[in-house]
Amino acid sequence: xxxxxxxxxxxxxxxxxxxxxxxxxxxxxxxxxxxxxxxxxxxxxxxxxxxxxxxxxxxxxxxxxxxxxxxxxxxxxxxxxx
Length: 82
Prior knowledge:
Layout: E1 8-9, E2 16-17, H1 23-27, E3 30-45, E4 50-62, E5 70-71
Antiparallel strand pairs: 1-2, 3-4, 3-5
């Protein structure tokens, strides 16, 4: 997931943020909740490298000017791999 990055308007000393409200608040990470219909295995937050485990629901911290990227195994582990 990614949102449009911040853009600056104007040139030189007239450059100004095109973001309404407090810029610092807009850059504060938010908790992104991700839900899948089916269970996922070996889910990883690729931005931080943190293993999120197995399941249907996951949460990651997301800075809106960065991408939130997760990966998961392509198939369920066999009973021998658990």
